[in-house]
Amino acid sequence: MKKFYSTLFLSLIGFISLAQVAVGIKVNNPLLYGSSPGAFESNSGLEISRSGNWGIINAGAFVRIPLKKHLALHTELLYKNEGAGYHYSSVQSSYYSGHFTYTYIDMPVLLQLEGKRMFRGFFQIGLSPKFLLTATHSAENLFFDRTTDVYSKFNRVVLAAHIGGGIMWNLDRVVLMGDVRISPNLTPIAGRVYDVNFSKARSLSVTMLSFSIAYKLTKN
Q1: Which CATH number applies to 22-216?
Q2: Where are the beta strands (DSSP E) in 46-190?
Q3: Based on C-alpha coordinates, what's the Rg of the chain?
Q4: d(CA 126, CA 122)
Q5: Hey, how many other C-beta atoms are within 10 angstroms of the C-beta on 3?
Q6: pLDDT (tens digit, 9 = 90+) per residue, 147-200?
Q7: CA 47 to chain centre
Q8: What residue spans define the domains of the chain?
Q9: H or E stretch covering 8
Q10: Is 168 helix (H, G, I), strand (E, B) or coil?
Q11: Beta strands 48-51; 33-36: pairing state
């Protein structure tokens, strides 16, 4: 993965001197963001209901490098908060309710196809490695509540895909963007962790609205 990013960086040096590179910040609307953990299973074979993480703020920085008239490279460095909740209908199970919370540094590399007007639409597609920052498990039953660090039980790196689009206002020195994006994980977040198994589940996050603003680093 390091070789991939090094090669990508070196191949873009020639473009950077000519392009209107824009550097900015991005934040999502927490009311329109959610993550789904996928169809993870119970290790005990009991039926469980599943839930995700909703109403979370994710934010970060991005760089936009125009490559051609209708094509740009869009890279991001984002903080992502995701989660997985579950509930057993049987109180005889070890935990009848639990919740995993896991956070990542997400580094999408996206190709952006866009129109040519100042106010234009765009389409994005790409991949990203997600590097695990924290992972905790909160368990509740009739007798106790407890929170445990489960970082060692989660995969350190997860590969994700991204597809989305939006609108962009390309001004002389500033770029304003609003977009939607679906980001499914291509690899599992973990294997067996306590009483659930994530090995066959493929989680995803959905951002229904995020806002970005960037400043163009044009040469004098």
Answers
A1: 2.40.160
A2: 48-51, 53-54, 59-68, 71-88, 97-106, 109-114, 119-140, 145-149, 157-170, 174-184
A3: 20
A4: 14
A5: 7
A6: 899 999 999 999 999 999 999 999 989 999 999 999 999 999 999 998 899 999
A7: 29
A8: 22-216
A9: helix 2-16
A10: strand
A11: unpaired
